Amino acid sequence: MPEPAPDPAVVRRLLVLQKNEITEHHIYRRIAAITPDVANRGVLLHIADEELGHYRIWGKYTGQEPGPSPVRVGLYALAARIFGMTFTIKLMEGVEQRAQQTDPALAALVPELPRMLANEEAHERELIALLNEDRLKYVGSVVLGLNDALVEFTATLAGLTFALQNARIIAVAGLITGIAATLSMGASEYLSQKSDEGTGDPFLASIYTGLAYILTVAILILPYLLTDNPYLALLCTLAAALIIIVVFTFYISVAKDLPFKKRFVEMAAISIGVSAVSFLLGLAIRIFLHVNV
Questions:
Q1: Are 68 and 235 in contact (CB under 8 A)?
Q2: 285 and 188: one domain?
Q3: What pTM was computed for the model?
Q4: Residues in the chain where the model's pLDDT stays below 50
């Protein structure tokens, strides 16, 4: 008696998983191609081969050979170049784990499923062992520069907005303050790393801190150069600050396995809260010192 045909819904699910496997095979190979460390590259290529093996197992049950998703391959390859191997692989592994949730219907149809899921767990252990990027050694320096810029500079711009009420003058004053603060932050981080005698390079730590600070300053000042309305510029600056906080907190939460919500709320509350106090101080200074620009 012939076996009953598999449920079409199950086959569609298998096709999705099969396409994911071939897509991840190409993603791992693309990341390996831009990974300078030979050992890391070897592990990535090994995992890519295993993903290809999983793709072929799914193919035995679907009878099809779907191609990879070029959009996903391109996006993850771009993410690896911009945000690094650690962030990209951990993000991809998180998506993969959600996609590979055990389905009783799949387990009944595919006897190899338990072994494949065990391989996925082995992947994660191998990946954790190889994730040793230089940029993550200096993430503390980036956090220092970015946090200080967000808190201090949104507060400075908020105070200047009510005190001066002229977008161009605020932008010039902010730029001068930002450049001076960048040099100060970089020098302070260099001396701090030098005195701690850690494993990191003090010069590189100071560069990461300075770059994080000045890039944040540039983004926050930009609205004051694009509009003559200082209050509209301030709203845009606060919105830009929140976007920066969202992006960076998401990066840290993925790369360092930290909770996203708590860190985002904390950073946003501090940045916006200090800005509100500075805004009121700027108003008080304008009123009591009779500043008119």
A1: no
A2: yes
A3: 0.65
A4: 1-4
